[in-house]
């Protein structure tokens, strides 16, 4: 493997981690959706580069799906939902930005500590890809934990899925079944969530998850 | 011959998939619930055919001694639940809780769920199995939210988010297993096929397998409902339609457990990887004791039995974590008994909630007097699930405890403690529910008690006399689990 191929792959995977960090501190819905679009574009670039270096044409399809669904259709529909639900306002962040970022850095360190020794025998590209992928997954989890708004939780979940796709494409020659199914299930999942959001909107004036908890609190 | 040989396996997938598709377009509650019932029955029939007719394993599907147990059990409960569901849903339509469009959707989803679970159990490919579990999650999420009340939506949302995170962790673990297998088995499908993975497990990188198992255990463990990833389970059980509570407890938890067991076998086949047992034992004990205490504070009858499911999944995970022929045998038996008993209890509870118009434990009293058929069934079911003789659950719990005493006496202490705590809570609750001055009823229901009593009779039968063929079969599977 040429060193250029390695460097470019490294750049994209590292870029994805960086964009995950950017997602953490967005406090406006529009900004959040835009950064998620960027996340999806970086992912698809990374996948396309893997397709090129691994000579695996089917990975181009995965890259195309990532661009089409995650960078175009999903952000657009999220914008629409946002307009319909009238939630352009700030989103609440639990804990401060500083604390969240520090936690994020700890998670990246954790994933390096866990993954690098475990993959000592694998080839260097796959190793670092996997460590980056785990970082993206953990950052996505962190985002889901720190956000209260349903839409930002969904975005956190999708960034987590992006990390999984990064891992799946980094694993050399992993069969196509999984990639397509991942993309496909994200699509289904998204429809489901969309329906849910609308249903929730019918009953509540907000998509704030805390509102849901309050309903239960009252019932108990 | 080859085509013939593959038929029962394919039928297990084609029948539910096709009928799910058909049901999506049919309306009319009587017709659709009838089709649902027939199709579940046919699926069960083909599952039984697998017992006598073992097809060769392919790249995507395979049948071995382990998954055939799960397939037969889950198609059986799917079948009896479809019979119960017909009368339950009929009453929900009469009272206007569900409209015909919902029912159409419900039946289509029911069959899709059966399809997904059969696929997860029969899949020979770890990727395919993951997809099937994900699909099963989606279908059950949709059914949990079907009442559209704020509580139901909250339960479905919670289930969806926690389930998806669990599933995501499981996928990461699956990718790691592939990475571990790839240097040995080469790129491509072969490195994801169970049968070849098991053959070459000894040569895989143990460190990757270790990390993978942690992710898989946490991921699929979320779907098993193990503490501390259990938060979705009580809500999903309490707010969805009761037939779905029955299949969640009776089927879905088992399917997730099956995935954990498969990966446990994979790790056991590699001598240098960590032993998966201690992790399973810890999670199992935590679930058992936590759920045991939580049982005391429940005020919702379906939530109560949902926590009891967490408790029993804890016992089963514990037993499989102990390993060895006896503990595995006990785990398998307990899983079967729990599925049968818990779905029977939910059958009774569903009708009880319908006649009483409430799920609040405080508002349900004197069932044996006002509704003797349902009331005594509930008493029998709770006796069984609490582990009293002569029911089968007693036998399996006794085996779990005694095998633990024989090998790790110190672990048997918290185990027995957890069992007693749960026993006390259930007994205390059932006395209030079943006896005393009857509370008001809001109406009558055409209860379908055949599936209910049939399940209880089976559990009683196993408790009194375990048929030698079944015992030998379970022993064989327990040996496989290692």
Describe the overall structure.
The complex is a heterodimer of chains A (220) and B (482). With 220 residues, chain A is mainly alpha-helical. Helices cover 82% and strands 0% of the residues of chain A. Chain A has helices at residues 3-24, 29-54, 58-85, 97-118, 124-146, 150-170, 176-203, 209-219. The N and C termini of chain A lie far apart (61 Å). Chain B is mainly alpha-helical. Chain B is built from 19 helices and no strands. Chain B has helices at residues 2-25, 29-52, 65-94, 100-122, 126-144, 150-185, 194-200, 206-224, 232-239, 242-268, 277-294, 301-322, 324-356, 367-370, 372-386, 392-407, 409-434, 450-464, 468-481.
**How far apart are the first and last residues' alpha carbons of chain A, in Å?**
61 Å
What is Rg of chain B?
Answer: 21 Å
* DSSP helical segment count of chain B: 19
Strand content of chain B: under 5%
Percent in helix of chain B: over 70%
In terms of quaternary structure, the protein is: heterodimer
SSE string of chain B, helices as H and strands as E: HHHHHHHHHHHHHHHHHHH
Major interchain interface with per-chain residue totals: A-B, 49 and 44 residues
Number of structurally distinct domains of chain A: 1
Uncertain residue segments of chain B: 1-5
Structural class of chain B: mainly alpha
Choose one word for the global shape of chain A: globular
- pLDDT average of chain A, as an integer? 77
Number of strands of chain B: 0
Report on the biggest sheet of chain A.
none
Number of helices of chain A: 8
Percentage of helical residues of chain A?
Answer: over 70%
Q: Extract low-pLDDT stretches of chain A.
A: 201-206, 215-220
Query: Structural class of chain A, please?
Result: mainly alpha
> What is the H/E string of chain A?
HHHHHHHH
The count of DSSP E runs of length 2 or more, i.e. the number of strands of chain A, is 0
């Amino acid at each position: 493997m040429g060193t250029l191929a390695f460097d470019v792959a490294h750049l994209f995977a590292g870029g994805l981690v960086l964009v995950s960090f950017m997602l953490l501190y967005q406090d406006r819905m529009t900004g959040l959706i835009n950064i998620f679009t960027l996340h999806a574009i970086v992912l698809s670039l990374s996948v396309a580069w893997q397709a090129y270096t691994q000579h695996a044409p089917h990975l181009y399809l995965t890259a195309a799906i990532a661009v089409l669904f995650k960078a175009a259709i999903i952000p657009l529909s999220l914008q629409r939902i946002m307009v319909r639900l009238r939630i352009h306002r700030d989103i609440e962040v639990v804990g401060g930005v500083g604390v969240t970022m520090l936690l994020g850095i700890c998670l990246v360190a954790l994933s390096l500590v866990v993954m690098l020794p475990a993959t000592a025998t694998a080839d260097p590209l796959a190793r670092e890809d996997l460590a980056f992928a785990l970082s993206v997954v953990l950052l996505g989890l962190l985002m889901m934990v720190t956000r209260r708004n349903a839409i930002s939780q969904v975005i956190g979940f999708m960034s987590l899925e992006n990390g999984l796709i990064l891992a799946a494409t980094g694993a050399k020659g992993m069969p196509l079944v999984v990639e397509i199914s991942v993309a496909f299930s994200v699509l289904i999942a998204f429809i489901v969530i969309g329906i849910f959001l609308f249903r929730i909107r019918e009953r509540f004036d907000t998509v704030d998850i805390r509102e849901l908890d309050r309903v239960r609190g009252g019932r108990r | 011959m080859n085509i013939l040989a593959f038929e029962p396996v394919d039928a297990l997938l084609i029948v539910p998939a096709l009928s799910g598709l058909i049901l999506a377009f049919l309306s009319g509650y009587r017709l659709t619930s009838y089709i649902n019932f027939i199709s579940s029955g046919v699926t069960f029939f083909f599952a039984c055919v697998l017992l006598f007719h073992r097809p060769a394993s392919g790249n995507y599907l395979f049948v071995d001694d382990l998954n055939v147990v799960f397939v037969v059990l889950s198609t059986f409960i799917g079948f009896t639940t479809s019979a119960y569901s017909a009368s339950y849903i009929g009453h929900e339509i009469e009272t206007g809780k569900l409209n015909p469009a919902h029912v159409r959707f419900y039946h289509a989803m029911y069959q899709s769920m059966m399809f997904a679970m059969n696929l997860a159990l029969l899949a020979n490919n770890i990727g395919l199995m993951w997809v099937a579990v994900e699909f099963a999650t989606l279908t059950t999420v949709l059914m949990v939210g079907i009442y559209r009340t704020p509580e139901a939506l909250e339960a479905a949302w919670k289930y969806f988010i926690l389930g998806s995170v669990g599933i995501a962790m499981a996928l990461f673990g699956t990718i790691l297993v592939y990475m571990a297998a790839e240097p040995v088995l080469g790129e491509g499908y072969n490195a994801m096929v169970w049968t070849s993975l098991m053959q070459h497990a000894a040569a895989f990188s143990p460190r990757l397998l270790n990390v993978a198992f942690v992710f898989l255990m946490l991921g699929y463990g979320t779907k098993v409902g193990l503490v501390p990833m259990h938060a979705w389970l009580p809500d999903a059980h309490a707010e969805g339609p009761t037939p779905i509570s029955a299949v969640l407890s009776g089927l879905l938890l088992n399917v997730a457990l099956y995935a954990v067991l498969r990966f446990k076998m994979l790790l056991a086949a590699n001598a240098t990887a960590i032993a998966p047992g201690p992790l399973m034992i810890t999670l199992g004990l935590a679930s058992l004791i936590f759920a045991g205490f939580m049982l005391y504070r429940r005020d919702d009858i379906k939530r109560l039995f949902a926590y009891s499911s967490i408790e029993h999944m804890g016992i089963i995970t514990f037993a499989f974590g102990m390993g060895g022929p006896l503990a595995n045998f006990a785990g398998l038996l307990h899983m079967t008994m729990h599925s049968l008993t818990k779905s029977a209890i939910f059958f009774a509870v569903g009708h009880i909630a319908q006649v009483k118009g409430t799920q609040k434990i405080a508002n349900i009293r004197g069932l044996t007097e006002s509704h003797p058929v349902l009331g005594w069934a509930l008493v029998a079911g709770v006796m069984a699930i609490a582990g009293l003789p002569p029911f089968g659950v007693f036998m399996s719990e006794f085996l779990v405890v005694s095998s633990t005493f024989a090998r790790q006496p110190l672990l048997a202490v918290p185990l027995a403690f957890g069992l007693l705590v749960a026993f006390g809570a259930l007994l205390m609750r059932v006395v209030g529910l079943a006896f005393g001055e009857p509370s008001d009823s809001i109406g009558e229901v055409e209860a379908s008690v055949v599936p209910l009593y049939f399940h209880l009779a089976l559990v009683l039968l196993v408790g009194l006399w375990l048929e030698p063929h079944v015992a030998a079969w379970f022993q064989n599977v327990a040996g496989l689990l290692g």
